[in-house]
Structures are given as C-alpha cells and as structure tokens.
C-alpha cells in the first residue's frame, strides 16, 4: 500500500508539473512564435498565437481537474454507488444526472473524461451525456461568474441555468431513444477490481491527461484559425436582426472556444446584440465548441462527435430562444 500511495502521489505531481510545463510552453511560444516567424510575422499571426495561447491556458487546468476526477471515479468508486444514486429507468436517470452537474466546478475540458469514466463504471450513456453537457454550464462557479458579468440581471442567470439544464436533459432523452451503441466508442482502458488502488489511479490519470491533452491543443489551434479568418465587418451585418444575431453568436460560441467560467464576460461585452443572442452564446459555448468536439472525437469517436455536437447545437439554440422569449 505504501508503494502504491507513493506511485499515486508521484503521478499526481507529474501531471501537475506536466500541465504547468504545457502552460509555460504555450506562453513562451506565443511570445517567441511571431518573432521566430521572420517573414511570416504579421498582426494576424500574432493574433493567432494570442488566441491559441488563451484557449490552451484556460483549458489545461480544468482538463487536469477532469482527469483527476475521472481516475478517482474509475478506481475508488464502486459501480454499486452509481446504481444506487441513479434511477434504473433511463428517463428518470437523465434529469438526475443533469442536475448533478452542479458538483463539478470546471469547464467542458473536465466534463469529457469524467463522462467517459462514468460510462466505464456502468452508468447509462444517456445519463452520462446529460452530465457531460450540464456540468460545465450550471455549476456554481459559472453561475456566480454570470451574475458578476450581468449585475442586477438575475433573469440572465436564471435563463442560463434553465436553458442549459433543459438542453442537457433533452439530449440525454434523445440519446436514450435514438442513440446507437455503434456510434459511440469508449476508451479501451479498463481497470479491473483486482488492479485498483493508488497505482491504478496514477495510471488512469496519466492516460486520460495525455490522451485528451493532444485534442485540446488541436481544438485550440482550430479556434485560433477561425477567429482570425472571419472579418470583423461581417459581425455588423447581423446585429440588426434578432434571429440572425442569435444564430451568429451561437456559431461564434462554437469557434471562439471561450471557457465557461469566462464566456459570461465576453457575452456581456457584446452589448450590440439582444439579450437572447447573448444567452445563446453562453448556452451553446460550454456544450458545443471546437475544442470540445475534438475532445469528444478523441474520447468517444468521430461518429459520435459529429452526430452529438450537431444535434446539441440545434437543441441549445432552441432552448435559448424559448427561455429568452419567456424571461428576457
């Protein structure tokens, strides 16, 4: 037990140091990259490095949190715990799992590995996916940040909570009714009962962090590319239409990849758009963005990520419009 505990502590230290090193490398590269680009050094290149670094720096700490929680669930929490906490009926288990998203104070980077661990521990995919969508959107940190970004507007906080939870529950029910096992691929790693303990915890955390970290970097690079490719003048065309502004901010939420703890401040700065459009930005972002799609692809497979993200985007926009029309 002593050796296993030392291995677990060592793995945790390595993961923290690895995350810190990744942050340091991203920061150094963002500063030196344009300088080393020689003839390629232009304002767009500098902007690309800035956006890439911002997305990576936001995501890595919460990805580390998610891998720690994922490994802990996979090793130390027996399957019977989930069977007792969640109703056997999937239709009832989905809203319970969606409401349980308040317990994970992190962003979408953390929710993907945790959802994968839940599935490996016997939780129905529909319930785990509801948790995946709700956790980064309705946790206390996000709601407090939203209240600070929109002072004196409790309706915006309530609207975000209701629209996000509704989206998570509807998506869980849709997967329970129409989802197919062949569309989703779980990570091959398995931890048997006789291989648990601190040693398995360290191995699981290391696997999940290295596996998901690469896709986080890929999503950050894609977000930076889209951010500098869309002319700012295009945004002005959409602000005059209530419907087009909702669709535009819903698309921007996908490509900008703003962390759920910070997206409320970005939405508050978009004062030219309607409250419903800004609500859509905050509801869609934590559930469908480029880095999240990349993480889902690496964890569950491309067939799942394409189908699930597309339907989630539609449901999130519809929920935002309905809740915005009712509350805002």
Index terms:
mainly alpha, 328 residues, single chain
Could you walk me through the main structural features you see in this protein, from its secondary elements to its overall organization?
Helices cover 78% and strands 0% of the residues. It has helices spanning 2-36, 43-76, 79-85, 90-99, 108-120, 125-138, 140-149, 154-178, 198-229, 233-238, 242-256, 263-269, 275-284, 290-300, 302-327. Helix 11 (242-256) runs parallel beside helix 13 (275-284). It is globular and about 55 Å long.
What are the SSEs and their pairings?
Elements: H1 2-36, H2 43-76, H3 79-85, H4 90-99, H5 108-120, H6 125-138, H7 140-149, H8 154-178, H9 198-229, H10 233-238, H11 242-256, H12 263-269, H13 275-284, H14 290-300, H15 302-327
